[in-house]
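Students often ask why inverse folding is considered easier than folding. One informal answer: many sequences map to the same fold, so there is more than one right answer. In these notes we will look at a single instance of the problem. The structure comes first.
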């Protein structure tokens, strides 16, 4: 766990406590900062956190929720990400599916492509595979191209003139989004196959950005309400960007 992330969150919690005029608390800001970091990085439950920090389960939940909301509010928006991306040669766009606990009846959250329930998150990475931005979460059944349009990603990149590499899931996106040549492999010409090979090598680097999100264990299998996934993803994004500065 990054010490810079711990220091950053501790500072934010101290400022927040002063802003709301918070009185004495069971844990200091530094100790409270460890709670959400352990929750996000290791996936510890509230009961485990409560036992480890000597507080009640309700208190652990309240402390974690407070910190996650603070971090999520600091996450860069799409406009911020586009400004950062404007100095890059290009960006890579992909969708990822943080899995959730769900049942077969929850069709909006079931991804036919991944064969599991989850929340769809769009990821933008730089040419080196470094995570620049992660979108709010949508139900897993939403296709990548629809998600990109709903978040305004395609239009934002086009207006900024930023070249974007993506997979076939973004077919028809238009703008500056480039996808592989469409068609069955055996029907493609030699030139088209070579283009697709080059495209795949470039796009493969986005997996590093996706792995950055998955390195936070809670996002490998979320057991919370689906309405909280966006805050969790945005909190992780803030911590990652803070640690990498």
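Output (designed amino acids):
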């Amino acid at each position: 766990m990054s010490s810079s992330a711990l220091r950053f969150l501790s500072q934010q919690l101290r400022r927040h406590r002063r802003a709301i005029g918070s009185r004495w608390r069971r844990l200091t800001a530094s100790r409270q900062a460890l709670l959400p970091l352990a929750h996000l990085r290791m996936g510890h439950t509230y009961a485990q956190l409560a036992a480890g920090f000597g507080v009640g389960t309700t208190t652990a939940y309240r402390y974690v929720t407070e910190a996650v909301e603070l971090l999520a509010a600091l996450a860069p928006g799409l406009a911020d990400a586009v400004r950062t991306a404007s100095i890059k040669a290009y960006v890579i766009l992909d969708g990822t599916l943080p899995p959730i606990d769900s049942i077969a009846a929850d069709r909006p959250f079931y991804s036919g492509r991944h064969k599991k329930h989850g929340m769809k998150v769009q990821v933008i990475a730089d040419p080196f595979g470094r995570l620049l931005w992660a979108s709010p979460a949508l139900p897993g059944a939403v296709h990548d191209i629809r998600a990109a349009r709903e978040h305004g990603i395609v239009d934002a990149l086009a207006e900024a003139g930023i070249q974007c590499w993506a997979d076939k899931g973004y077919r028809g996106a238009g703008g500056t989004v480039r996808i592989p040549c469409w068609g069955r492999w055996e029907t493609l010409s030699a030139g088209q196959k070579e283009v697709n090979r080059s495209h795949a090598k470039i796009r493969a680097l986005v997996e590093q950005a996706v792995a950055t999100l998955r390195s936070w264990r809670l996002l490998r299998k979320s057991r919370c309400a689906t309405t909280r996934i966006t805050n969790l993803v945005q909190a992780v994004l803030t911590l990652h960007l803070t640690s990498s500065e």
